Amino acid sequence: MKNKVLIILLILIVGFFIGLYIYNNNILNDANKNYNVMLSNMKASVINSAFIPNDPVIESTFIKASDVLITKPGDYAIYTFDVENKGDTDVILKTINKINPKCISLNLPEIKNDADLVCNNLEYKLYYTKNNQEVKLNDILKMNTKENITIKIGYNGKQLESSEGVQVTLYDMNLLYETIK
């Protein structure tokens, strides 16, 4: 009985060390691969009377928070940027962190109905510029390639009560890629 327990324990210990060796070897191999994905070349434009008080800033794979002023239906802000894989391996999009925007009426006193109307009917899209296809999880970015991506945010609903408009705050967005395993 004691011998059987020792044999099982020995098999478990040997299996543990073999698994640890394989795991560490995979990490070292993965660490030697370069999957340097960066966002760059942010450009902003507007449609109709939308206004962008300050352009968003890119930091690595983050697009920092920015604001858009919407005063009437048909107002849109368009942001384009590049996502580039400068690495020597293909990568896959594993996470899109895109927090819902916040809307505040700029009228004094505030017209809450305007803010709700805009936020509840906001068009907020992330798509590839070349073919208008939505950016989605598990999209692959080939090694040493670049894709141009567009963020389109705007409102095409009912007329607002106030001519002061609604400030839409876009919070940080992050695109996280991982190597394909």
Tally of strands: 12
What fraction of the residues are assigned to beta strands by DSSP? 35-45%
> Would you list the SSEs in sequence order as H and E?
HEEEEEEEHEEEEE
As laid out across the biggest beta sheet, the strand order is: 2-3-12-6-9
Low-confidence stretches: 27-34
Helix content: 10-25%
Summed up, the domain count is: 2
Instruction: Name the structural class.
Output: alpha+beta
Query: What coarse outline follows from CA principal-axis ratios?
Result: elongated
Radius of gyration: 24 Å
What average pLDDT do the residues reach?
83
The major beta sheet can be summarized as: 5 strands, antiparallel
- The separation of the N and C termini measures 43 Å
Note the total helix count. 2
Name some characteristics of this structure.
2 helices, 2 domains, 181 residues, alpha+beta
Describe the structure.
The chain is elongated. Residues 27-34 have low confidence and may be disordered. It has a five-stranded antiparallel beta sheet, with no helix packed on it. It has 181 residues and is α+β, with helices and mostly antiparallel strands. The chain has two helices and twelve strands; from the N terminus they run H-E-E-E-E-E-E-E-H-E-E-E-E-E. It folds into two domains: 1-32; 35-179, no CATH class. 22% of the residues lie in helices and 41% in strands. A hairpin with a 2-residue loop joins strand 2 and strand 3.
